[in-house]
Amino acid sequence: MLYFGSFNPIHKGHIALAEYAIERGLCDSVALIVSPQNPLKEGDSLIAELHRFEMAEIACRESRFPEQIMPSAIEFLLPRPSYTIDTLRYLQENNGAEMEFSVLMGADIIPQLDRWKDYQELLDNYNINVYPRSGYTVDKYLDKITFLADAPLHDYSSTDIREAYAEGRDTSAMLSKGVAEYIAKNGLLKRSGRAAEVQSLITQAKAAYGRNEWGKALNEFNAALKLEPENREAQEYVKMIQEILEFRYKDIYNP
Q1: pLDDT tens digits, one per residue of 241-255
Q2: 127-131: strand order across its sheet
């Protein structure tokens, strides 16, 4: 089963769907086809393709079926932009004697499928498996597709992850540990100006905290909270510092 996508970045929802396909016996293996360029998407916000491929490798290794769920860089070798039907023709020509191909796509694709190159050939010649997406109803091509009504539904996307990261929000529920570490190590996603300022203040405050400079640390954490009142890390540190100060100087606070 071929699962095409930008995987920008790959997240737990992608892998959950691949695992579902294996568990349900819909295929022997799932190939995540990392698309270097989607002709219907803007390319400016794309993480570099080799980084996206390496993250896909990590996510597949961390899956429950690492021998059956693997990434593919086949579209890196083909003419661009990447058209699904061209990739399928290439794979059919070169591997069709040994393999039977099917496609996995989201319900959000169906309304725009008629904009795809030679989409009718895709519908006529391949088993198209469609998983649900929030806000989308599948009411076209019902005689040509298989709707996977019980497939896992995750209410987030790669766009949501990029936005959450920019705003400094927690992404651990959406990204595997290995992928999150890879993003951090390579500086792939940048925080917005405010989120970066908050993180800088917290980093400075934690350093002051480690030196027992309670007043400086408290000021820095409070400055971070002024910018981002809901920041849990800063809130917890402020509480700890206040407890330390109350304990050390209880005679001042309680004459």
Answers
A1: 998 888 765 554 444
A2: 69-72, 30-34, 2-5, 102-106, 127-131, 145-147
